[in-house]
Amino acid sequence: MNSDRRSGSGLTITAAAGPGGVVLVASGALDYHSSEHFAAAVNEAFADGAAELVAELSALSYCDSSGVAALVRAHKQAMREGRRFVVRNPDTTLSRVLALTGLDSVLTIEH
C-alpha cells in the first residue's frame, strides 16, 4: 500500500506503507457515520499483508462509542491473524475513555 488518501463521512484517512506495516493517519470524526470507513481501511491494510497496523489518531476531532468499537474490532482482527494493531497518540479525552473502560490494558497504545 502506497500513500493513499480517502475521505468519508467526516473522516479522512491517509495510509502510508512503512517497514513491516502500515500507518493509518485518521483526521476528523471517528463515529457511527465513519466507523465502517475506518474498518475498510483496516481491512485493506491487513489484506495487503501488513504485519503491523498503526492508527495515528492525533488529528481526530471526535471519537464516539462506535469509533471505540472500531478500534477494538481492529485489535481483535489483528490478534486473530497474528498481527499487531497499535493506537498511537489518542487525545486526552479518548485516552480517558480507554482508561475508564479498561481498554487501555487491552489495546496497544503509544503516546
UniProtKB/TrEMBL annotation:
Residues 11-111 form the STAS domain. It comes from the Bacteria. InterPro entries: Anti-sigma_ant, STAS_dom, STAS_dom_sf. Transmembrane segments: none annotated. CDD domains: STAS_anti-anti-sigma_factors (cd07043). Gene3D superfamilies: STAS domain (3.30.750.24). One of its GO terms (molecular function) is anti-sigma factor antagonist activity. Belongs to the anti-sigma-factor antagonist family. This is Anti-sigma factor antagonist. The lineage of its organism: Bacteria, Bacillati, Actinomycetota, Actinomycetes, Micromonosporales.
